[in-house]
Amino acid sequence: MINLNTPQLGLGPVAESSTDAMKISVLASGSSGNVTYIETPTHKVLVDAGLSGKKINELMQSIGRDLQDVDSLFVTHEHTDHAKSVGVLARKYGINVYANEKTWSAIAGKVGKIPLEQKFDLEAGEIQELDGLDVQSFPVSHDAIDPQFYEMHYGGKSFVILTDTGYVSERMAGVIKNADGYLFECNHDMDMLRMGAYPWPLKQRILGDTGHLSNEDGANALMEVLGNRTKRIYLGHLSRENNMKALAHLTVASMMTEKDYGVEHDFHLLDTDPDAATDLTIL
């Protein structure tokens, strides 16, 4: 079912130049859909495809990039807000898709047929090498069949994507510590969730160990993992119903400032949006 061979996507050394850098844009982040774009001189990569293909194409165009140039897509888990258009993008643009075996099984009936030569198995704890871009996978605690997220390493820089987890374990923190940049979950405000209209079983799911990080949880976890290399922190996967962008930002900034972290001095806190891309930025 799954091609276990490493795709041959140009194995020569990457030339050193002023443009030899990793660039990132959080195309969309939120409970309604998630897509992140990572670029090096030799590869253009997406993590997740949780919106329609049309919307992802529009977001790519908004940062001056084209889906035709994307060569790889890394899937974190099978939930629709992360995997909605995996099959569409693979078929239409010939993109190679990476996921672990259980996630492949979970999405098999949802995303349609993907050519075998475009399907690759990447298990938690493994690293996929793409011409100097090393994509390191790590497991998280979420109510999906086998969820994993990714840390991108290129040119001495690293960028961690971590949304959709109920907590950050010591082991997980050790893997992602002192990255240059983070996309980190701040899904909900605890009071908004508890007083909101969601049924109690759903609230319990979100608050549980396989749910989502609150603003406070996200701030506390960030203070455990950021280091002197960390310069950019994107706050992501905000719930439309149980959070607000300004509230998440204020909560994280206040908690960090109270603990003497150099917010907007040593590093920047940056907002994301479910419908608009962040600027394409050199990490």
TrEMBL record:
All copies of domain Metallo-beta-lactamase, residue ranges: 32-237
InterPro entries per UniProt: Metallo-B-lactamas (IPR001279), RibonucZ/Hydroxyglut_hydro (IPR036866), WalJ/YycJ (IPR058121), WalJ/YycJ-like (IPR052533)
One Pfam family it belongs to: Lactamase_B
Designated name of the protein: Metallo-hydrolase
Organism the protein comes from: Furfurilactobacillus curtus
Source taxonomy: Bacteria, Bacillati, Bacillota, Bacilli, Lactobacillales
